[in-house]
Design brief:
Mean pLDDT: 96
Shape: globular
Strand order of the largest sheet: 1-4-2-3
Number of helices: 3
Strand content: 25-35%
Distance between the termini: 30 Å
Number of strands: 4
Structural class: alpha+beta
Largest sheet: 4 strands, antiparallel
Length: 87
């Protein structure tokens, strides 16, 4: 298991386009990936799961992955968030 915490800094948070980018990136990995917000876990490979979090700017998230490419998965998602989803 590998995890990291990050804060959303983009204006729209994880809504619509950023959420779809997040799910698309998550789906490239074999590991099970979850996002933890306020103690609740969401499936990072599910667009409905990601959108239902209601994660806005300033939200702190923990990204957790379990599997053969867990470290690479978390690092790729952190990089995506750090890039503000290309905004």
């Amino acid at each position: 298991m590998f995890s990291a915490e990050i804060e959303l800094k983009n204006e729209t948070g994880l809504h619509a386009r950023p959420a779809s980018q997040f799910v698309f990136t998550s789906s490239k990995f074999k590991s099970n990936i979850t996002i933890i917000k306020d103690g609740k876990e969401y499936n990072a490979k599910s667009i409905m799961g990601v959108l239902s979090m209601g994660a806005s700017k300033g939200t702190k998230l923990t990204i957790k992955a379990e599997g053969e490419d867990e470290k690479e998965a978390v690092e790729a998602l952190i990089a995506l968030i750090d890039s503000n989803f290309g905004e």
